[in-house]
Write a structure and sequence with these properties.
Number of strands: 0
Organism: Hoeflea ulvae
Helix content: over 70%
Distance between the termini: 32 Å
InterPro entries: DUF3144
Protein name: DUF3144 domain-containing protein
Radius of gyration: 16 Å
Strand content: under 5%
Oligomer: single chain
Amino acid sequence: MNGTENGTARTDKSSETEKFVRLAGFIRVANAANSKIPATDIHMAFLYGAARYNAFVAKNVMDVAEHEAFVTEMAAAYTEMLRNHLADPSV
């Protein structure tokens, strides 16, 4: 890979991250709710909501036949995201 390809990859990843952050407006709602609701309750609600929504998408949009394989794939994706955020000094 040359320097241009590396720069493009970083830009594409940055662009995807920015797109996700725009879609994840619920994070602002959660931050605002922290003044009235314990963060530990909010984070469990997020986990429940993510699991419920992902199950809906898997079954009704993606028509996933192998549920356990999908669970493994989603758990791996979540694990990677969580590790990345825990390593982020700005969090």
